[in-house]
Amino acid sequence: MGLQRATFVVRDYDEAIAFFVGTLGFSLIEDVDQGGGRRWVVVARGDGASLVLGKAETPEQVAAVGNQAGGRVAFFLFTDDFRRDYAAFREHGVTFEEEPRDEPYGTVAVFRDLYGGLWDLIQPS
């Protein structure tokens, strides 16, 4: 048993796919029309857990877009080459909240996703 997928609430499927695939280098795993404007969209980077992109439909879901963890870092993207991915993300316009720093657990920097939510880019030590 293990955690394989987590929901990531989005405003629009296509803008979210463009960000995750085009900007962060994720792969589009599934994109299945479910009718009624709903889609089953899954993106992943590497062999780890994947994200199910869920389009916000209710007022509560719309309010959660960009605030998935109440202002805390919600997602932790691990890399085997921090400098490569940090540079690539910056080239694609990703906003980092800080300069990279070395911590006992690895090299890390906080960045914002397309909706302003916080992520850690981490290369474990």
Explain the overall architecture.
It contains three helices and nine strands; from the N terminus they run E-H-E-E-E-H-E-H-E-E-E-E. It has helices at residues 13-23, 59-64, 82-91, and strands at 5-10, 27-35, 38-44, 50-55, 73-78, 95-96, 101-103, 106-112, 118-124. The mean pLDDT is 96.
Summarize the structure.
The protein has 125 residues and is an alpha+beta fold. Helices cover 22% and strands 42% of the residues. The longest helix has 11 residues, at 13-23.
Write the layout of secondary structure elements.
Blueprint: E1 5-10, H1 13-23, E2 27-35, E3 38-44, E4 50-55, H2 59-64, E5 73-78, H3 82-91, E6 95-96, E7 101-103, E8 106-112, E9 118-124
Parallel strand pairs: 1-4, 5-9
Antiparallel strand pairs: 2-3, 3-4, 6-8, 7-8, 8-9
Q: What order do the SSEs take from the amino end to the carboxyl end, as H and E? A: EHEEEHEHEEEE
For the biggest sheet, the summary is: 5 strands, mixed
Q: Into how many domains do the coordinates divide?
A: 2
**Proportion of residues in extended strands:** 35-45%
Judged by helices, strands and strand pairing, the structural class is alpha+beta
End-to-end distance, in Å? Answer: 26 Å
Indicate the percent of residues in helices: 10-25%
Residue windows where pLDDT falls under 50 for at least 5 positions: none
For the residues shown, what is the average pLDDT? 96
Taking all Cα atoms into account, the compactness measure Rg is 15 Å
In one word, what is the shape? Answer: globular
Q: How many helical elements? A: 3
> What's the architecture of the largest domain in CATH terms?
Roll
Annotation, overall tally of beta strands: 9
Under CATH at level 1, the class of the largest domain stands as: Alpha Beta
Fourth CATH level, the homologous superfamily of the largest domain: 2,3-Dihydroxybiphenyl 1,2-Dioxygenase, domain 1
